[in-house]
Amino acid sequence: MYRRAPVALLVVLFALTGCAVAAPPVPRDCVPTSTDRSTVEHAKNFSLRYERDHQVLTVNQPSPGAPPESYVLVGCDADPQVPAELAGAPRIQVPIRSLYSGSTTHLPLLVDLDRLDVLTGVATAAYVSSPQVTERIAAGAVAEYAPTEQVDVERVVAARPDVLMTGGFDDPAYGPLRAGGVAVVANAEYLEPTPLGRAEWIKVMAALTGDELRAATVFDGIESAYTESAARAQAASTRTPVVAGSMFEGVWSVPAGGSYMGRLIADAGGSQVWETDPSTGSLSLDFETVFARSGQAPVWLAAQDWESRAAALAADPRYGELAAMRTGQVWTANKAIGPGGGNDFYERGVTRPDLVLADLVAILHPELAPDPRFTFYTPLS
To answer: In the chain, N or C: fewer CB atoms in 10 Å?
Structure first.
């Protein structure tokens, strides 16, 4: 049961009596402030500034339309003097020892940094697809704090994680959590319009865990693989027409040219009618418009969890008019599903765009990938 009122009452009482809300911190080993520095090249929604005795992490848009938030990251060997504009910014001792994760997209970052040891909480366990994380959940090393998608404030405050990392949306629970002594750090990588920009958020996680060098190595490998796949696709003699997205409640959401998926399709050597639209989100269209302009595309990248073309037709018989339904080139990103139904495409796919791009190149230009090993995509039978 989600109970927020008792915590709010405790916060008021503690404030009136002058007592601390949370219990005294557990003594921790002193780790000097890291001298390693990350360079941000692709991401636009966060920045890292390095001072002599601290770092400043700023998330430019923590949630849609929200003002920037900054966090002062301090090693236990430092007592920094920060400028007046950062006087109220949360101070977080790094490297952190415990993290509560509000989105499954954080989990691959910890896996790639080899720092799953700091993961002590996930919002909803059923959404997790990572075998390493599900194993830790089953072993009791990772708690679930929002099983009904509502944050259990009392449980989180009692657990006292060093950081609760958000999924990029605001939540009424965050105020009581902050009052209870929990540092709430925004992660809004999904607002990055480019695939490599999203992947570069591994450097945010590394700033918290003290693994900047490891993050640089991992990201450089992702960037290199992505660039190599894109170069091969651009060298193809033709660009393959694509129809992307699908219907939901009478609306077909099509990725615009400036969107994350629009850029992936273009980098994979595909073309779509709306690729010149600079919008960074999806376009809401009706079936007739999509069919009239791209219904003859030989490949359909469907955004649904169907297991067969028959299931697609059951959802909307009009799909049968698409050329891709006749040729059999209908693909969904449903190959890797976790035990609770979580889709790895929405977990590891966000942080590993090189693997997503490799799948798309193999779909759109099979001549470039004679022996493909798909990570996320699978054809509908």
So the answer is: N
